Predict the 3D structure of the following.
Amino acid sequence: MDYENEKDVEKDLEFLKETYKKYSYDADIMEEAFNSTFFKYVDKIKFFAGGMDVISVFDNKVNMAEAVRNNVALIIKRLEIYINSGFDENCLQEFYLREGFKGETINITFGEARKIFYENQELSVSDRNEIEQMVDLVEEVYSSVDTKKNKWHRLRPVIMWVSGKDVETGLLFLSLIQKIN
Protein backbone atom coordinates (compact mmCIF):
# COMPACT_ATOMS: atom_id res chain seq x y z
CA MET A 1 0.00 0.00 0.00
CA ASP A 2 1.36 3.41 -0.86
CA TYR A 3 1.71 6.43 1.41
CA GLU A 4 -1.38 8.19 0.02
CA ASN A 5 -3.63 5.20 0.72
CA GLU A 6 -2.16 4.75 4.19
CA LYS A 7 -3.04 8.35 5.00
CA ASP A 8 -6.57 7.80 3.66
CA VAL A 9 -7.04 4.86 6.03
CA GLU A 10 -5.80 6.94 8.95
CA LYS A 11 -8.14 9.80 7.97
CA ASP A 12 -11.07 7.41 7.71
CA LEU A 13 -10.29 6.02 11.15
CA GLU A 14 -10.13 9.49 12.70
CA PHE A 15 -13.38 10.44 10.94
CA LEU A 16 -15.13 7.36 12.35
CA LYS A 17 -13.81 7.94 15.86
CA GLU A 18 -14.96 11.57 15.84
CA THR A 19 -18.34 10.67 14.35
CA TYR A 20 -18.86 7.90 16.91
CA LYS A 21 -17.84 10.18 19.76
CA LYS A 22 -20.08 13.10 18.71
CA TYR A 23 -23.02 11.42 16.96
CA SER A 24 -23.37 7.85 18.19
CA TYR A 25 -26.98 8.63 19.09
CA ASP A 26 -27.83 9.84 15.54
CA ALA A 27 -28.76 6.82 13.41
CA ASP A 28 -28.68 8.73 10.11
CA ILE A 29 -25.19 10.15 10.63
CA MET A 30 -23.90 6.79 11.87
CA GLU A 31 -25.40 5.00 8.88
CA GLU A 32 -23.73 7.47 6.51
CA ALA A 33 -20.39 6.97 8.30
CA PHE A 34 -20.83 3.20 8.12
CA ASN A 35 -21.66 3.18 4.41
CA SER A 36 -18.84 5.54 3.49
CA THR A 37 -16.22 3.30 5.10
CA PHE A 38 -17.61 -0.23 5.00
CA PHE A 39 -17.86 -0.40 1.22
CA LYS A 40 -14.42 1.16 0.90
CA TYR A 41 -12.69 -1.61 2.87
CA VAL A 42 -14.82 -4.74 2.59
CA ASP A 43 -12.91 -5.89 -0.51
CA LYS A 44 -9.50 -4.67 0.68
CA ILE A 45 -9.27 -6.37 4.09
CA LYS A 46 -10.04 -10.06 4.35
CA PHE A 47 -12.80 -10.96 6.86
CA PHE A 48 -13.65 -7.26 7.26
CA ALA A 49 -17.41 -7.87 7.24
CA GLY A 50 -17.33 -10.91 9.51
CA GLY A 51 -19.59 -10.80 12.51
CA MET A 52 -21.20 -7.49 11.70
CA ASP A 53 -24.87 -7.01 12.45
CA VAL A 54 -27.18 -7.36 9.48
CA ILE A 55 -29.20 -4.22 8.95
CA SER A 56 -32.67 -4.75 7.56
CA VAL A 57 -35.15 -2.17 6.34
CA PHE A 58 -37.77 -4.22 8.18
CA ASP A 59 -36.15 -3.58 11.59
CA ASN A 60 -37.49 -0.82 13.76
CA LYS A 61 -35.47 2.38 13.98
CA VAL A 62 -34.02 1.54 17.41
CA ASN A 63 -32.71 -1.86 16.28
CA MET A 64 -31.29 -0.37 13.08
CA ALA A 65 -29.52 2.38 15.02
CA GLU A 66 -28.02 -0.15 17.45
CA ALA A 67 -26.84 -2.37 14.60
CA VAL A 68 -25.21 0.55 12.78
CA ARG A 69 -23.57 1.75 16.01
CA ASN A 70 -22.18 -1.75 16.69
CA ASN A 71 -20.91 -2.03 13.12
CA VAL A 72 -19.16 1.35 13.24
CA ALA A 73 -17.46 0.31 16.48
CA LEU A 74 -16.28 -2.89 14.75
CA ILE A 75 -14.98 -0.92 11.76
CA ILE A 76 -13.02 1.36 14.08
CA LYS A 77 -11.43 -1.63 15.81
CA ARG A 78 -10.68 -3.35 12.50
CA LEU A 79 -9.11 -0.28 10.92
CA GLU A 80 -6.91 0.12 14.00
CA ILE A 81 -5.79 -3.49 13.61
CA TYR A 82 -5.20 -2.94 9.89
CA ILE A 83 -3.03 0.13 10.54
CA ASN A 84 -1.12 -1.54 13.40
CA SER A 85 -0.39 -4.56 11.19
CA GLY A 86 1.34 -2.38 8.63
CA PHE A 87 -1.69 -2.53 6.31
CA ASP A 88 -1.68 -6.31 5.99
CA GLU A 89 -4.89 -7.48 4.29
CA ASN A 90 -4.74 -10.75 6.29
CA CYS A 91 -4.46 -9.00 9.66
CA LEU A 92 -7.97 -9.88 10.83
CA GLN A 93 -7.46 -13.62 10.40
CA GLU A 94 -4.45 -13.41 12.69
CA PHE A 95 -6.37 -11.12 15.04
CA TYR A 96 -9.29 -13.57 15.34
CA LEU A 97 -6.88 -16.25 16.47
CA ARG A 98 -5.05 -13.97 18.94
CA GLU A 99 -8.32 -12.62 20.36
CA GLY A 100 -9.25 -16.07 21.52
CA PHE A 101 -6.12 -16.33 23.64
CA LYS A 102 -7.31 -13.30 25.61
CA GLY A 103 -10.55 -15.06 26.44
CA GLU A 104 -12.71 -12.89 24.22
CA THR A 105 -15.39 -14.34 21.99
CA ILE A 106 -14.49 -14.60 18.34
CA ASN A 107 -17.50 -13.51 16.33
CA ILE A 108 -17.10 -15.35 13.05
CA THR A 109 -19.48 -16.85 10.54
CA PHE A 110 -19.45 -20.47 9.41
CA GLY A 111 -18.23 -19.39 5.97
CA GLU A 112 -15.39 -17.37 7.46
CA ALA A 113 -14.37 -20.30 9.64
CA ARG A 114 -14.30 -22.60 6.60
CA LYS A 115 -12.16 -20.08 4.74
CA ILE A 116 -9.68 -19.76 7.62
CA PHE A 117 -9.26 -23.53 7.81
CA TYR A 118 -9.12 -23.89 4.03
CA GLU A 119 -6.37 -21.26 3.76
CA ASN A 120 -4.31 -22.75 6.61
CA GLN A 121 -1.36 -24.27 4.78
CA GLU A 122 -0.28 -26.21 7.87
CA LEU A 123 -3.31 -28.49 7.59
CA SER A 124 -3.28 -31.55 5.36
CA VAL A 125 -6.05 -32.09 2.84
CA SER A 126 -7.57 -34.83 5.00
CA ASP A 127 -7.49 -32.55 8.07
CA ARG A 128 -9.21 -29.79 6.08
CA ASN A 129 -11.89 -32.21 4.92
CA GLU A 130 -12.44 -33.48 8.46
CA ILE A 131 -12.70 -29.93 9.80
CA GLU A 132 -15.10 -28.95 7.03
CA GLN A 133 -17.34 -31.90 7.92
CA MET A 134 -17.38 -30.81 11.55
CA VAL A 135 -18.14 -27.18 10.62
CA ASP A 136 -20.99 -28.50 8.46
CA LEU A 137 -22.33 -30.50 11.40
CA VAL A 138 -22.20 -27.52 13.77
CA GLU A 139 -23.92 -25.35 11.17
CA GLU A 140 -26.58 -28.02 10.66
CA VAL A 141 -27.27 -28.10 14.40
CA TYR A 142 -27.25 -24.29 14.50
CA SER A 143 -29.87 -24.13 11.72
CA SER A 144 -32.07 -26.89 13.10
CA VAL A 145 -35.33 -26.30 14.91
CA ASP A 146 -34.81 -28.40 18.00
CA THR A 147 -34.54 -28.11 21.77
CA LYS A 148 -31.33 -26.97 23.38
CA LYS A 149 -30.98 -30.37 25.00
CA ASN A 150 -31.19 -32.19 21.65
CA LYS A 151 -28.84 -29.71 20.00
CA TRP A 152 -26.31 -30.24 22.79
CA HIS A 153 -26.65 -34.00 22.44
CA ARG A 154 -25.93 -33.72 18.71
CA LEU A 155 -22.87 -31.52 19.42
CA ARG A 156 -21.20 -33.89 21.90
CA PRO A 157 -19.18 -35.73 19.22
CA VAL A 158 -17.91 -32.37 17.95
CA ILE A 159 -16.90 -31.32 21.47
CA MET A 160 -15.03 -34.58 21.98
CA TRP A 161 -13.37 -34.29 18.56
CA VAL A 162 -12.32 -30.66 19.00
CA SER A 163 -10.84 -31.37 22.44
CA GLY A 164 -8.07 -33.29 20.69
CA LYS A 165 -7.23 -30.47 18.28
CA ASP A 166 -4.88 -27.49 18.54
CA VAL A 167 -5.86 -24.31 20.41
CA GLU A 168 -6.67 -22.26 17.30
CA THR A 169 -9.03 -24.93 15.96
CA GLY A 170 -10.65 -25.30 19.36
CA LEU A 171 -11.21 -21.57 19.78
CA LEU A 172 -12.78 -21.20 16.37
CA PHE A 173 -15.08 -24.16 16.96
CA LEU A 174 -16.08 -22.87 20.37
CA SER A 175 -17.03 -19.55 18.81
CA LEU A 176 -19.22 -21.40 16.30
CA ILE A 177 -20.80 -23.54 19.02
CA GLN A 178 -21.55 -20.44 21.11
CA LYS A 179 -23.84 -19.21 18.32
CA ILE A 180 -26.23 -22.07 19.01
CA ASN A 181 -29.21 -21.36 21.26
In short: Residues 54 and 67 are 7 Å apart (CA to CA).
